[in-house]
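Bug #2210: token dump truncated for Enoyl-CoA hydratase/carnithine racemase?
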Amino acid sequence: MTHDDVRYEIRGSAAWITLNRPERRNALSVELLDGVAAGLRDAEGDRAVRSVVFAGAGPMFCAGADLKRVLGELGGAGVTDFLRRAAALFDQVARHPQPVIAAVHGGVIAGGLELVLACDLVLATRTATFADGHARYGLFPAAGGATRLPRRIGANRAKQLLFTAESWSSDRMYEAGLVNEVVDDDRLDAAVQELTERIGRLSPLGLARIKDVVETGLDRPLDDALGYELRACEEYATSRDFAEGLQAFADRREPEFVGE
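Reproduced locally. Full output below:
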């Protein structure tokens, strides 16, 4: 995949999708959204890819939507259409079968935060900051912010961020439950690479099933979710990866998964 606003590269078993508009603080444009969507499709179609990483070029992860450009190109009425496109992309991120990791540095604001909320795991530098920011200008977090944020950090904390537009440190977001790991600024890429290598040794089919069960179960009553979990396991138990895992355990060796 080639796209000016997005860099796509393979590092080991991970596909890195880098937002590449540093001069605009990686603000989200229509072209950038299209580039990210294309990168996700490429990653899903590549059997060698076991996880996806989102990163940002330059000093900041993502400053949210490029409203100046959206207004200039689409006009006021086009903002709603842009938000629909962004929401659809973030849904694509959330439903992506491979584990998706956000590698956050600098600032992540508004639409940038909504992208992070759609990811499965979040690693952040010690100096990274998180903010919603919509309320500051009377805007609305319509691409998942008002819905996913309380599911990730609880309603009380989410309301504080949404109502005040204040900025939280990565340590505070770790305590709130959004950030999985806080690392030194010069260790972010290495820490993410170590995580993708661990994921890359596991069954991609099994992880996809687990991700689906976790996400689906959150929106179902407990009994329904448990039934869905059991059915997913029964289906996975017919796969080559499941058999390989059992055989490797019996042989006391490392399994070699193929994703089938």
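Output looks complete on our side. The chain is about 50% helix and 15% strand. Marking as cannot-reproduce; reopen if the truncation happens again.
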